[in-house]
Amino acid sequence: MCELFAACGKRKILLNEPLKTFFSHGETHPNGWGLATFHGEHVAVEKEPENASTSRYLKNRLRGAIEEDVCLAHIRRATVGEIKYENCHPFVARDNTNRSWTLIHNGTIFKTERLNAYFRRQKGSTDSERVLLYLVDQINAELERLDRDLSFDERFDVLETFVGDLSEGNKLNLIIFDGEYLYAHSNYANSLHVCSNSDCAIFSTRPLDLNVWSALPITTLRAYRAGELARIGKNHGFVFVDSPDDMQFLFMDFAGL
After folding, report:
1. How far apart are CA 250 and CA 225, in angstroms?
2. Mean pLDDT of 170-174
3. Engineering a disulfide at 32: which of 76, 160, 171, 210 sits with its beta carbon 3.0 to 4.6 angstroms away?
4. pLDDT in tens, 46-102
5. Residues sharing a CB contact under 8 Å with residue 136, sequence separation 6 or more, in sequence order
6. Alpha helices by DSSP H, the chain
């Protein structure tokens, strides 16, 4: 699978050390890396279909200060989709109000019916990109229904329905940023952790240092702004558990069988 990283702070914080530790995990997740930073309405995405722990570009990038209030990062171990640039996370899409939605995903979509319509629309071939396109369509449908921009609570409600719908039978560890709020969701035990203090919240698939990390509660969407928890959703109850059939699916898909 993949690993996720995100930071959400009250102010810009220096992220080089946690990012260096996170990207060192590329040794076991060698199929790509990505980094997203945010500057007003602009989303800057840097990514390569290369091993993060050996990438010359990333090594040079981490030598300079990476000081951000919001940041998303990803390392990939391919299960669905070829090893190429278009399949590296993060993915970005804009809704009909031009709001950007940036997504990183750890997991696999086994029940694909809701996402099949996006094969022809996506740039790459990952289920993760299809997840984002599906989400933005749900946002656009609500925009059309209300005929106005959505409030934070209305956006949260759409996302809560979205993760509940997709979590049954699928592994859905997601971090999403909508330009204002960062949303985190996991439905797989002990696979996404958070470390919080008075200035920021940092998320990682695995704890990155000796600070106090806690497993993110599963099957419940959470939203953060400026490093603080803004809203907790309802427990949808769809816990993902590995099964032999799932492992066979992954093997056959990766092998192109």
Report:
1. 35
2. 97
3. 76
4. 999 999 999 999 999 999 999 999 999 999 987 777 899 999 999 999 999 999 999
5. 93, 94, 95, 101
6. 16-24, 56-63, 127-146, 152-167, 244-255
Angle at 161 between CA 70 and CA 39, to 5 degrees: 20
What order do you get walking across the sheet with 100-106 strand by strand? 91-94, 100-106, 173-177, 182-185, 222-225, 228-232
Mapping DSSP to helix (H, G, I), strand (E, B) and coil, where does residue 83 land? coil
Q: At 64, list the tokens.
A: 């300079």
Cα–Cα distance measured from residue 204 to residue 194, given in angstroms and rounded to the nearest whole number: 6
How confident is the model over 146-164, as pLDDT tens digits?
Answer: 999 999 999 999 999 999 9
d(CA 73, CA 26): 12
At 63, which amino acid appears? R
Q: Are 173 and 192 in contact (CB under 8 A)?
A: yes
pLDDT at 80: 75
